[in-house]
Amino acid sequence: MENYLVKWILKLCMLCTVLGEECSLELKPSRVVVGFGEPVSVSCEASRPVRVLGWDSAIGAANSQQDRAVQWKVDSLIDWIEEPICYGVFFTAPRQCEEKLNLVLYKTPDSVTISSANHTGPMVAGTEYQLLCDVQNIAPVQYLTLKWYRGNAEVYNHSFSDLTPVTPVQVSSILLITPTQADDGSQYRCVAQLDMGPEGPQPSPSVTSEPLNVSVHYPPSFLSPDAETVDMGSGSEMTLNCTATGSPAPLYSWQSSDPQEKMEDTPVLISSYLLPGTYTCTASNTMGKKSKQFIVKTKSEGL
Ligand SMILES: *[C@@H]1O[C@H](CO)[C@@H](O)[C@H](O)[C@H]1NC(C)=O
Ligand SMILES: *[C@@H]1O[C@H](CO)[C@@H](O)[C@H](O)[C@H]1NC(C)=O
Ligand SMILES: *[C@@H]1O[C@H](CO)[C@@H](O)[C@H](O)[C@H]1NC(C)=O
Ligand SMILES: *[C@@H]1O[C@H](CO)[C@@H](O)[C@H](O)[C@H]1NC(C)=O
Question: Which listed residue, 55, 67, 166, 221, has the most CB atoms within 10 A of its CB?
Fold first, then answer.
């Protein structure tokens, strides 16, 4: 029982020291997010009589010997200062204490650029490339998220929360891509976004790069690569469709089992009359070539 009482009293006393040491200074607001060149004002208020109340800061320093509240006020904040400190000197203990202002001075980047790091011109499907996003003159970098987009889809983001400088810096991010033919004609963008918490501007300020157009080269391929059999109908037109996908756009050539037959270099052969036989079409581009066969039969042959 005695033990319990002692413990209880000790607890109470711990509580009284915590209360006694409380600073009695309150900053309103306690955290401010200011854009470079914007005005700012914060009030420091004391909850008990003060001898001196003031702001210690490289800019906007102020103090008072009567008032219970002192403003830290700057019309256009352009100095990358550390946290301003409000201090109070009191008649009773604790005689002196201070409160640091949580100040975030931010600046959106001068530029956000995207480029292909070690490459120019069209890319080759299946090869790895580096895309580089470069952000100039941003602060504070620890609130920056660099987001990578392919079309409208976010593909990667890069955070810089482990960095500490308060002054503007240059940062970059690298995205490794291995494009496929589906990437041909796609656009990549990167977005630099400053998320500075509930006290910051909403929505978060962001700067988007110009798009990077990606063109991807890949060899021709056919939707249906198997040989096709075409029956000669009487009077109706025959269509031999050799259209292939490929980049750059494939060129076409046709060969017939009858060397006498002359044919145009088009992807689709439309004719009301073709000799029975085998027709081979070849689609080619700088990446490779593919062939496809069409077997033309008279209708009776099929029966
Ligand atoms: C670009 O750089 C990356 C990493 O160094 C490398 O893997 C890739 O092969 C390079 N791409 C080209 C086209 O040189
Ligand atoms: C960053 O990407 C992760 C997953 O890769 C996602 O969970 C997170 O929401 C993204 N962050 C932002 C700020 O978009
Ligand atoms: C990128 O593609 C878009 C639309 O496809 C086009 O308007 C724009 O001019 C292209 N930009 C460059 C640099 O080729
Ligand atoms: C040929 O086939 C392609 C798809 O492989 C199709 O888009 C195109 O419309 C066809 N052309 C003709 C004339 O049938």
Answer: 55
Q: Please tell me if the CB atom of residue 213 comes closer than 6 angstroms to any atom of ligand 3.
A: yes
Q: Enumerate domains of the chain plus CATH numbers.
A: 2-105 (2.60.40.10), 111-214 (2.60.40.10), 219-298 (2.60.40.10)
pLDDT digits (tens, 9 = 90+) for 178-200: 999 999 999 999 999 999 999 99
- 144 alpha carbon, closest ligand: 2
Average pLDDT over residues 81-98: 90
Q: Which helix (H) or strand (E) holds 301?
A: helix 299-302
- pTM of the complete model: 0.78
Q: How far is the CA of 219 from the centre of ligand 3 (A)?
A: 23
Q: Which atom of ligand 3 is nearest to the CA of 213?
A: 1
Q: Output the CA torsion sign for 14, 19, 20, 26.
A: positive
129 lines ligand 1 (CB under 6 A): yes
Confidence of residue 202 (pLDDT cuts 50, 70, 90): very high
Burial level of 296, CB count in 10 A (0-12/13-18/19+)? buried
